[in-house]
Design brief:
The chain is an alpha+beta fold and about 160 residues long. The chain has 2 domains: about 30-60, no CATH class; about 70-160, Alpha-Beta Plaits, CATH 3.30.70. The protein has 5 helices and 9 strands. The protein has helices spanning about 20-25, 60-70, 80-85, 85-105, 130-140, and strands at about 30-35, 40, 45, 55, 75-80, 110-115, 120-125, 145, 155-160. The strands form 2 sheets. Strands 6-7-5-9-8 form a 5-stranded mixed sheet. Helix 4 crosses helix 5 (about 130-140). The protein is elongated. Bound molecules: zinc ion. Zinc ion (ZN) binds near residues 37, 62 and 63. Zinc ion binds near residues 39, 60 and 62.
Length: about 160
């Protein structure tokens, strides 16, 4: 009888986590420093600590996405509440982004398009967790509804927050 625990490891593909092509690329040498954001890769993860020894230069997955113009998630904000409270909403977006990227260097806001005072706003992010987390932060602060279906592996999350 074969035990499933004896199956050979398959490059993380069978881990049950959606595979992110930007995370599955060849592991950088340790330590490495991202030339764009100065994040450090050491002990198997990206962090904001200074490298413990002379570091190689290796672009982090978040900055690679930004350069490629390939977000991991998009969050659309819309509704009458956004227009009437545009400053508060955008302040929460920026504060939440700062907090998230401090703890998780690969989870960041890439850019914001659209004018919240007049219409929908599109936020592009480097991580699915940041996309979902920002949507949840908006609901917690202002109410409204969040639709954030989990995407297929390798596809971006397309989430919507709305409050009328
Ligand atoms: Zn970077």
């Amino acid at each position: 009888m074969n035990s499933t625990s004896h199956r050979p490891r398959n490059d993380g593909m069978a881990s049950g986590q959606p595979s992110d092509p930007y995370q599955l690329r060849r592991k950088p040498p340790q330590p490495s420093t991202c030339p764009d954001c100065q994040a450090t890769f050491q002990k198997g993860r990206w962090c904001w600590e200074a490298p413990s020894s002379v570091a190689a230069s290796h672009r982090c997955p978040a900055c690679q996405r930004i350069r490629d113009g390939v977000p991991a998630g998009e969050l659309t904000l819309s509704g009458a509440f956004l227009a009437s409270h545009s400053e508060e909403v955008m302040r929460l977006v920026n504060n939440t982004d700062e907090r998230m990227r401090l703890d998780h260097p690969l989870e960041r806001l890439i850019d914001v398009s659209g004018d919240p005072a007049t219409g929908p706003v599109l936020l592009r992010l480097t991580g699915i967790h940041a996309t979902h987390g920002l949507g949840k932060a908006l609901v917690k602060a202002f109410g409204g509804s969040l639709d954030a279906p989990y995407p297929d592996a390798g596809s971006p999350m397309r989430a919507r927050w709305q409050r009328d």
